[in-house]
Amino acid sequence: MSVIARVEKINPHNGTRMTVEEPIATEAPLNLFLNEKFVITLLATPKMQKELALGWFFTEGVLQSLDEIKRVVEEQNYVEVLTRHPVNEERLQTVGVTRIMTTACGLSAGKFLTTIGEKNKKRVKSNYKIEAIDIITMVQELDKSKLHRSTSGVHVAALFEDGKLVAFAEDVGRHNAADKAVGVAIQSKVNFSRSILVSSGRQPADMVLKAAKMGIPIVVSIAGPIRSGIIAAESAGVTLVCFVTNREIKAYTHPNRILMNKR
Fold first, then answer.
1. Considering the domain boundaries, does residue 228 fall inside one?
2. Is position 22 within any domain?
3. What is the 3-state secondary structure (H, E, C) of 137-201?
4. Are 140 and 34 found together in one domain?
5. Out of 66, 82, 105, 109, which one is annotated catalytic?
6. Is 110 part of a structural domain of the chain?
């Protein structure tokens, strides 16, 4: 979603200035509740709120199966997930890992690995592989975001299952965009072990671990990795591919899942 703003464009070279109207990406608070208990407020693009909520709860490790969910209530600025049985309090504590590493700084490599070892024990073991040229094709799908083209103020995320686009999302936050895409895929019962998450944002540890918790073996971005993201991907068994262009890709971890082109 976007709003129209009046902008004064100034050209210091020819001394001209003019007022124009341009679309600007917008955000709004979304409050997430679990069984009548407030969990967190996310600032997000105000659409696909249910998908964002489901994606967030799953990628943070709070929920692990659709069968746990009894009902999802969605209102203007909040989403509440009601489960069939009480959720173990320890699952909510796992959210602390993401909160600690949101900025991907302030932790030594040793302390980081210790935190990951204690809180994120899941390792992706999928043998799913893909040709390098197909990754470039997938990244090109991100260019289809009209909101990104018109505002340059949002991130885009897409999920591909066996090479087929199954989820597409936009948001002012790169984490939110990824969570929305995962939320769509959860409801479609996508096989995450044969899926690839493609996004426009940089890849610190918390972004990589969202994919790892879903069992997604390959994470792709047109942006760069952060050192913590590389460490997390290596530890979690995720193939991390960044700086994708029309000419090349860069695989930072577990490159064995990337095949040379057969065609």
1. yes
2. no
3. HHHHHHHHCHHHHHHCCCEEEEEEECCEEEEEEEECCHHHHHHHHHHHHHHCCCCHHHEEEEECC
4. no
5. 105
6. no
For 247, residues 6+ apart whose C-beta sits below 8 A from its C-beta are none
Q: How many domains does the chain have?
A: 2
**Do 156 and 237 belong together in one domain?**
yes
CB 244 within 8 A of CB 220: yes
Reduce the DSSP state of residue 68 to 3 states and report it: helix
Return per-residue pLDDT of the chain as tens, 263 residues.
678 877 666 666 677 767 878 787 777 889 999 999 888 888 888 899 999 999 999 998 899 999 999 999 998 888 999 999 998 877 777 664 444 333 333 444 455 455 554 455 678 999 999 998 999 999 999 988 887 777 777 899 999 999 999 999 999 889 999 999 999 999 999 999 999 999 999 898 889 999 999 999 999 999 999 877 888 898 899 999 999 988 888 999 999 999 886 65
Q: Are 98 and 135 within one domain?
A: no
Tell me the CATH number at 50: 3.10.20.10
The CA distance from 28 to 43, in Å, is: 5
Identity of the residue numbered 123: R
H or E element that contains 6: strand 2-11
Whether residue 92 sits in one domain with residue 170: no
Provide the token pair at 43: 């600032």
Give the integer Cα–Cα distance in Å for 255 and 136: 15
Whether 250 is covered by a domain: the verdict is: yes
Known catalytic residue: 242?
no
Residue 250's domain comprises: 130-259
